[in-house]
Write a structure and sequence with these properties.
202 residues; mainly beta; twelve-stranded antiparallel beta sheet; globular
């Protein structure tokens, strides 16, 4: 999936849906998986195809008051050498790198505290060139049901431009699990992702 660094955050053993987190088992914590071994399967639904991506938290460290989470992508049971990193602070969730591409400055994909109506902007800068500019808006907390289960998640709406075309996205973040669903609109028909399973690390 070479579409965009916006999300996000992409991803073989799936746990049964009935053992996934339900609203009655609400999780707490940062809106991103931050425990070594956390593992999730995302189903990417394109207009003409459906594929699965598996990601796993490979390392967690504390540096300068922030939590740095390293995520690897699993293929055929093996985690590849390319690593993505996220930085979690009291101010928000920041993308540091994606599949080996390191950004000049971590950019904010989720601003804390989450408040309906809050807005912020961010830029993805690679190799001294700003490749994407994002406009974010925190919408509201919603109940979302995906194959992995039912979650209470906060919807974030994003506007940006890619390949000369305006695009819009909506992402639903659940505490300690991260993005459980996202939808991306564009002139090419866009695509969607839904979480098929989430296995907590031990």
């Amino acid at each position: 999936m070479s579409r965009l660094p916006v999300i996000c955050f992409v991803l073989a053993l799936a746990i049964p849906a009935d053992s996934a987190p339900r609203l009655k088992d609400e999780r707490t914590g940062p809106y991103y998986p931050a425990k070594v071994g956390d593992r999730w399967v995302m189903e990417i639904r394109n207009p003409d195809s459906t594929v699965e991506i598996i990601e796993v938290v490979t390392a967690v460290e504390t540096k300068d008051g922030a939590t740095i989470v390293s995520i690897g992508r699993e293929v055929a049971g093996n985690v590849g050498p390319e690593v993505s990193q996220m930085r979690i602070t009291e101010k928000g969730l920041f993308r540091m790198s994606q599949l080996g591409t390191v950004f000049a400055e971590p950019y904010c994909v989720l601003q804390f505290p989450l408040k309906p109506g809050a807005t912020w902007t961010a830029e993805a800068n690679r190799g001294g060139t700003t490749t994407l500019k994002f406009q974010y808006k925190a919408a509201k907390e919603e109940d979302v049901e995906v194959p992995a289960g039912k979650f209470k998640a906060f919807r974030i709406d994003v506007e940006y431009e890619s390949s000369g075309a305006a695009r819009r996205s909506s992402l639903w973040y659940a505490p300690a699990v991260g993005v459980v669903k996202d939808e991306h609109a564009g002139k090419d028909g866009g695509y969607a992702r839904v979480m098929k399973s989430f296995t907590p690390g031990k």
